[in-house]
Each structure stands twice: as structure tokens, then as C-alpha cells.
Amino acid sequence: MAEIAAWFTDPANWAGPNGIPTRVLEHVEISVAALLIAAAIGLPVGLWIGHNRRGVRLAINLANLGRAIPSLAAIAILVPFTQLISPRGGGFDLYPTVIAMVLLAIPPILVNAYAGVAEVDRELVESARGMGLREREILRGVELPIAIPVIIGGIRSAAVQVIATTTLGAIYGLGALGRYIKAGIDQRDANGMLFGGVILVALLALSSEGLLALAQRRLTSPGLRFATR
């Protein structure tokens, strides 16, 4: 504990390109980028199959396949391909990690989007059709507002997984908070740096969990659910 406290209170660890604020910002940027890309892919697919009930088995199986691939193995597999595309850019460190995190985040986002829409009362949907609403209007105005809490739950799960797993990118030269953990392991005696990095990742993951849990709770409140109908 003394080593951890000394590491956090050392002014040198709070300044420069290797300082804690810089590393935290890098970690957040990489995680948010991966989540946004995953949401851009997983949400439309999940909403579509939840509404139309078509291609459910194929989409879910493909999503679960992404879960079956270890993130570290995915990064290693992607490195040769991303280096061909960007040999001098982030082809070795940045792009493989981001793509692997996208693959990790898509399944919970897609599955929850599908489940949220599919669980909407079918009588409510049929009533909307009977009122002359188009399918897109039903999805946007009836199903989506009711399914939002479940969808947020998927994003919440994906966010925690991505923040925790992005640290693996440090093995391939990525910065972010994983660099502290890797450097601490490499130096063997840098317990302050090692556990300091672990604490920072945990705090970041818990912060995202708390914020998204609050958003999910607000969106599940009876008043809001009634208003969306």
C-alpha cells in the first residue's frame, strides 16, 4: 500500500506523455471509439431482427462467435492485416486493439437490442399497425422507447468489458492504462505502478458502470416509461 500511495503522490506521474491524465484520456478515447463503432453495427442489426424476427438465429450465433474468440488472440490475428493497411501508423498497436474491442462489444449490444425490441408487447405493436403507422414509425415511436432500458443494459455491459480488456493492447505497444500494468510486470519490482494501473482501470470501469446504471434506472422509471407510450 505504501508503494501504491507513493506512486500516486509522485508529481512526476501526473505530468508529461506518460502521466496519469494522458494515459486515462487515451484509455477513454480508445474505449469510446470501440463502443461507438460497435453500437453503429450492433444496434441497427439488433433492432432490425427484434422488429422483423428475421435472421435471429444467424445474428445471435455470429454475435456469440465473437464472444468465443479471446481478445488477446483476436489482437494477435489482426496485427498482420492492419500492418499491411497502415505499416507506419497504428497498424501494430492501435488498430488491432480497437477492432478486437469492437468484436468484444458487439455481442452484448446486439443481443440486448434484439431482446429489448422482441419483448415489447405484440398487442401494442399490432395496435400501432392498426392505427396506420409504418414499420419504421412503430420501431422508432413504440418499440424503441420501451426497449431503451434493455439496450442501455447491453451498452453498460459492453463498456465495462471494453474498458477492462483494452489493457491487453499494451502487450502490442498500445499506450493507455495497460502500459502501467505491463511496465510493472516487466520491471517486477514496480508494485506501485502495477497496482496503480490496476486501480485506475478498475475506477474507470466502475465509473462507466455507475453512470450507465444511473441512465438505465432513469430510463426505467415508471413516469418515463408511461410518457414514452
Short description:
By secondary structure, this protein is an all-alpha fold. It has helices spanning 2-9, 20-52, 56-68, 71-85, 94-118, 122-130, 135-165, 178-187, 191-219, 222-228.
Q: Which architecture would the CATH scheme give at its second level?
A: Orthogonal Bundle
Largest sheet: none
Q: What is the total domain count?
A: 1
Helical run tally: 10
Going by CATH, what is the homologous superfamily? MetI-like
Report, as a whole number of angstroms, the end-to-end distance.
Answer: 53 Å
Mean pLDDT: 87
Proportion in helices: over 70%
The fold-level CATH name is: MetI-like fold
Indicate the low-confidence ranges by residue numbers: 223-229
State the order of secondary-structure elements, H for helix, E for strand.
HHHHHHHHHH
Radius of gyration equals: 21 Å
Inertia-based shape: elongated
Total strands: the figure is 0
The chain-level structural class is mainly alpha
State the CATH class.
Answer: Mainly Alpha
Q: What amount of the residues lies in strands?
A: under 5%
